[in-house]
Design goal:
single chain, mainly alpha, two-stranded antiparallel ribbon, 4 strands
């Protein structure tokens, strides 16, 4: 990974940054990042969720302050956009894609997170 295009805790500093040259490196980094995200989410309490969060979007690097809970809703929902992009690409290339149905996921692989 090229440290010039990545800052730990900030992510890529360029939209077209290539952080890993191979799938093994990408997979390991994704697992580590997911563990970091889960640990941080587990550390949040109601007071922090009700507070604010300041960040700089990659596409328009000016400071933005939002309520943390609202920003987290976007953070977790944004993956839906990218799953749709991946699904559309695979479909256009006539390759099978994973099931994107959330309820189906929660009944199967996601069962461990469903109450």
């Amino acid at each position: 990974m090229d440290e010039a295009v990545y800052e730990r805790g900030r992510g890529a500093v360029a939209a077209d940054a290539i952080l890993h040259e191979d799938l093994n490196g990408l997979t390991a980094a994704r697992v580590a990042e997911d563990e970091r995200i889960i640990a941080w989410i587990d550390s949040l309490d109601e007071e922090r969720l009700a507070g604010h969060f300041t960040y700089s979007p990659l596409t328009n690097p000016v400071e933005v302050t939002e309520r943390l809970a609202r920003t987290l809703a976007h953070f977790f929902n944004h993956q839906t956009h990218h799953r749709g992009q991946a699904h559309a690409t695979l479909t256009a290339l006539k390759h099978p894609s994973l099931t994107l149905d959330l309820v189906s996921f929660l009944r199967t692989e996601g069962k461990k997170w469903a109450d």
